[in-house]
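Q: Structure for this?
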Amino acid sequence: MDDRKLKILAAVVDEYVRTGEPVGSKSISQLENINVSSATIRNDMAVLEQLGYLEQPHTSAGRVPTFKGYRLYIDELMTPHDLPEEEKRMLDEMLGDKDTPEELLVQNAATALTEITHCAAVVTNAVPRFSVISKVEVIPTGKRLYVILLITSNGSIKNKACRLEFDLSHEQLDFFTHYIEENLSGVSVDSLSEEMFDKMVAAVSAYMVSLSPLVKGICELSEDLRQQELTVSGSEKLLSCEELDKMEVVKFIEHKDGLSEMLENAFSGIQVKFGSENDSFAIGNSSLIVSKYRKGGKEAGSLGIIGPMRVDYKKIIPYVEYLTQKISALMDSDDDIISAPSDIQEP
Amino acid sequence: MDDRKLKILAAVVDEYVRTGEPVGSKSISQLENINVSSATIRNDMAVLEQLGYLEQPHTSAGRVPTFKGYRLYIDELMTPHDLPEEEKRMLDEMLGDKDTPEELLVQNAATALTEITHCAAVVTNAVPRFSVISKVEVIPTGKRLYVILLITSNGSIKNKACRLEFDLSHEQLDFFTHYIEENLSGVSVDSLSEEMFDKMVAAVSAYMVSLSPLVKGICELSEDLRQQELTVSGSEKLLSCEELDKMEVVKFIEHKDGLSEMLENAFSGIQVKFGSENDSFAIGNSSLIVSKYRKGGKEAGSLGIIGPMRVDYKKIIPYVEYLTQKISALMDSDDDIISAPSDIQEP
DNA sequence: ATTAGCACTCAAAGAGATAGAGTGCTAACG
DNA sequence: CGTTAGCACTCTATCTCTTTGAGTGCTAAT
C-alpha cells in the first residue's frame, strides 16, 4: 500500500464527510496537498476499490468509503483535531462540578454531545459496584406501612414503601434495624445477591414471619442499585439522517436492540464501531463512537454517540474523549460524598 | 342542513378514516345504509364542500373532511363504540389495582393507550394538591451530610441529600425535627409556599444558622411535589404517520410546545382538539384526545393521545373515557395508602 | 510512472403520452 | 321538485423515451 494511496483514501473520506456526495477523481486532484492529475488518482482509486476500501454506488459515479475504508481511516490515517481551550471551558460549564450528582453528570454530557454533534447520545450510568451500603433505615409512616431508605457511600439514595401484615412494635423494629445494619452495613453493592437476601429472609422469619416483606423490599432496592441503565437521548436526530434507514431507526428507538452488547464488548479508550460490522445492532450504516469513563481507576460506565457512518470523526472523537476524561476526574474527586459507615455520627 | 347530508358527511369521515384515501361519490353510494345514487351524493358533497365541511385535494379527486368537518362529526354525528367487557378486563389488568402507586397507574394507562391506538400517549401526574405532609425525617449519613425524607399522605416519597457547614448534635437534630414536624405535619401540599419556608428559615436560623440548608432542602422537595409533570410516551409512533409533518413532530418531541397550555385549557369530560385550531400547538393536522381524571371529586390530571387528525375516534374515545374513569375510581379508593399523621404509630 | 484524450456508462431530470378515478353539468324521469 | 343516468372534462399518477452530465476506464503519448 502506497503512501499516496493512503493520502487519497483519507482525502476521499474527508471530502465525502464534508459533502455527502460520492467524490470523483477531479475534485480530489484539486485539493491543496494533492499534486497529481485526476488520471493518476483514478488509477489509485481503482486499486483502492479492488482492495475493498472504496466503492462506487454505480459505474460513472464517484467513490464512497466502505466501512473497511472508514476503519483504516479512523485507526491509522486520521489526526483528530485539538479541542480549543474555549470549547473545553464550555464543556466544563455544561458538565457541572464535583458536587453535581453522578447521574446528572452523565446526563449533562449526553445533552452536550447531542447539541454539538447533532447525533443521538448514549450513556450508561455508573454502576456503584465498588461503593458500599452506608445506611438502611426503616421508617413507619402509617397503618402497617413502612418506608425503607437505602443509602450507599457514593451518594445514591433509594426509597420504597412497603406494607406489612401487622404493625411492628418498637422492639421488633429495633431488632430488625439492628439485624439489617449488622448484615448489610459496609457490604459492597457488587457482592449483594439474591441468595444473600434469601438467607436473611429465613433468619428474620425465625424471629417474626411478617418481617420478610421488608427484606424483600430491601432486596428490590438493591437490584435497582445494581442495574446498569442505558439511556439514549436525542434519538430523534437520527431520523433526520438521510443515510440511515428510517424503519431501522424507529425500531432502534423503541427497543435499543443490541446496544448494551455493543457497549459491554467495548474495551477501554475511545472506540468506533459500525452497525454493519455487528449484526446484533439494529441500524445498518450507523456508527457508534464510545469511550468508558472510570471511577476510582475502574470502568464505571460508557458515554458516546450514535450517528451515521458518515460523521466527522476528526471533530467528534476529541469531544467524546474529553468528556469521558472530565467525568472520570469529577467522579474521583467526588468519591467521598457520603463517607463510609464507620464515620457516621449516630444522633 | 339536510339529514341526508349529515349522513353523507359521517360516511365520508368513516371511509376516510378507514382507507386514508380521498373518498368519491361512488364508494359512498355503495355503502349499506345509503340508498341514493352517486349523482345525488355528488350534489350533496358539493354543498358540503361549499359549507366548508369537506375539501378536495385537487379537482377530480375524492373529498376529504376539513377539520370543521371532523369537528361536526365528533360533536354531533359520531356514536362511539361500546367497549366490550373483555377489553375492559384487559385494561383493568394493565392498569393495576388500588395498591398501585399513582404515578405507575397513569404510566400504565399511557402504555396501554400507545399499544392500542398506535399513537403517542400524553399524561400528567396527579398533583397531590389535597394530600398532606405526613412525615419529614432528617437522617445523618456521613460527615456533615444529611438525607431529608419527605412523605405525603398520598404515598409520594421524596428524598434529597444535603450538606451542612457543621455536624449537628443529637439535641440540635432533635430540635430541628420537632420544629419541622410541628410546622409541616398535616399541612396540605397545596398550601406550601416559598414565603412559608422563608419564615421557617428565619425561625430556625435564630436557633442555629447552619440549619437553614435543611429547610431549603425541604422547600426544594416540596417544589418537586407540587410540580405538574407532563409525560409524552410512544412519541416515536407519530413519526410513522404519513399525514404529520416529520419536522414538526421532531420539534414537538424535543420541546413539547404548547401541550401544557392545551391541557390546562381543557375542561372536564372527553375532549378533542386539533393542531390546526390552535396555533400554539406545534403539530398541524394533529388531533389531541384527552380527558381529565379526578381524585376526591377534584380534577387531578389529564390523560389522552396525540395522533393524526385522521384517527378512529369511534374506537379511541371509549378507551380514553374508560381509562380516566377507572383511574379516578382507583385513586379514590387509594386515598388512604398512607394515613394522616394522627394515625401513625411512633416506634 | 504519469498524464492527456476520448469513448463509454449510468443515474437523474425532463418531456410526452396514457389510463383512470372522480367531478360537474344537463337532460330525462317519477 | 328532487333524483338519477349519461357524458364530457379535469387532473394526477404512472410509464416510457430522451437528454444531460458527471465520472469512469482505457490507450497512447510523455
